[in-house]
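Follow-up to my earlier ticket, as requested here are the two runs.
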Amino acid sequence: MDELSRERAKKMSMGEIRKWQDEIIKNIESNYKTMLLADRKQLQKDLAFLEGIRDAKKGITSTAKLELLAVDEYKGMVEMQMSDTSIALELSVDRKQLADWKRKHGLMPYNKNTIKVVHR
């Protein structure tokens, strides 16, 4: 999606955005086997962008999305082989926000990536 299309989408009503999303979904489904992976991923990014606009129009922030995310739902996404990066993209949140949410819910120790210093 080019910059002009993004600006146009921001001015659309929620119904128009939903219609555009439906067209993208139909395009992906009907051309799934013949479509290049890069093209399919771009269309998925476009869908996520449009969903973000709809959420903003509804007043749903990224923080609110994380508050609505249940631990069991997150674990289900992980079981479906989704990475944290793809989960963050799915929810339209930053990876750091997702990491903070995981720490808050005990799914990741706070200093997991730090080196332990042993005192003698």
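Run two:
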Amino acid sequence: MPQGSNRHPLDSASTSTMQQQQQQEQQQQQQQHQQQQHQQQQQQQQQRQQQQLPSNFRPAIQINGDKSTQSAHATLMARMEALRRLQQGSTSNQFISTEPSKLNPPVADAPQTDLSGIGPTGQLPPVDKSVDLDGDGALSLAEVQYAAFVHHGLSSNVIESLFNEVDKNDDGYLTSIEFNDIRPLVLAKAESAAQRYLQTVDKDHNGLLSLKEAQEYILKEYGIGNRDVERIWRLVVPNLNVEMDATMFSKLRRRIRAMSIRLARLIMKNADKNEDGHIDKREAQKIAFEQEGISAGDVNEMVMSVDDNNDGELNAPEFADFERIIRSRAIDTSKKALKVVDRDGSGTVTMDEAKRIAFDHYGFDEKILGPFFAQADENEDGQLDPVEFAGFRSVIRSKAVKNALDIMQEIDSDGDGYINNSEAVAMARRQDDMDPKETFNLFVIADQDKSGKLDKVELADFLRLVRLSAIKFATEHFKEFDMNKDKTVTIDELEELIELKYKIDRIITRQFFKKVDVDSSGDLTPGELVDFRHEIRRFVTERNSQRPYDSTKSNDQDGTRGESTEEVRKQQFISLFDQN
């Protein structure tokens, strides 16, 4: 050692050690900086994913457990954060197939961690993003319940039991490995449900489901037509002649459910007024009343029965189940109506029978009804059974609501988009000389929500009630037009009367007669007679348009003072129209 030097022999080693420590600190700082950047990127990605969550998903309510539970959750999330960079996109739904999830190959320098944090293990694969709706890298109970409900209709209680069974560390979340454990359990529950239901729809009791049996029950429950069922059937079993066992039937049910949810979303698109992706009770009431005339009280019970997550509103899968209940109610109503309409006692409705009831209630002729009847006649046998008749009635009601909307444009004098009692009275008097008291009584019946005004659906019911009242009145006074007492009213009995009283050319009268004679029988039924009267009144009003029609006056005001309302209306009906 050189003299004068105070350097210790280990100084060089100490200096080297210090340099290494500095390098390690720099590396740690760089790693921390990279981790912070990575966390920021992940937070931004999670925010973007949350913005893309389906509008009908309600995240699970977070449970504030004790400190040990919170610590376990924090530990899991820290481990999931470390593994997050390994995750890759996946679009397949894990409840559809029984094949295990494909694991991503481990990265050489990635930390090796198990669920308990003890000892090295293989890498955790990422969770399925189609189930992980909030993008937090773990599957909550609400997310698993939602996926199982969407695809298989399994209730939340059933899934909660399975969830607790596979959630080994009781942290309230499932990793991809734990999710692989619950998938076969969910599929087994779905197949078990299919097996039980198969016993109900298997009409020949051979333990298998034929295409015909599938079409029959799917039309009844979902309103999905035979051709669509055949197309979906081929996606499960290419051969239409092969019958399905419970396993295949479970797959068919999943596809049918998916289609019903898509149809439900189409209805929700128009009915969801606040555009929150859900149907609240008030919106559900409007839908049920428009489709089937179901009262608000019954609707509230229906909503409660299908609200699987108990949030007081209906998401798309829940609304699909709500629509099934409406259809079931429609079929029950159809069976009762069938007993009235089915005059030949065949248990089905022919075109003639359907035409008669639709004409009396709504004034629809065969030209309008023909396509509707053909659409409802799924088996194309020329008759409608109770299930088909329910579909026919639904289409007819929808058409009536559309017509009511057109009429509303004409009679809504204050332009508020509703019909009040005064506007209703003016219309009923102008068309049918209906007494204001009777009009008010019908108005109250049609005013389902008791708002004092009629919307388009309520107006459709009001117009139907007014029409039925007018037909009843025409029936009671039919003999006044039957001059030769042969129980029919022909053009010969009407044209001379119309020519003398209203100076209408017989050619025009015959045109009106032909127009309203919807069954082309050469004589007018009471319903056709009401329409004939409307045509004559409309013609005279337009002809005399230089003197506006005063809706506040009776059509036969002169010479009717002191007479009863019934007598006045009788004279007015017989005279058809009197403005002179």
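The only thing I checked on run two: The first helix runs from residue 11 to 51. Let me know what else you need.
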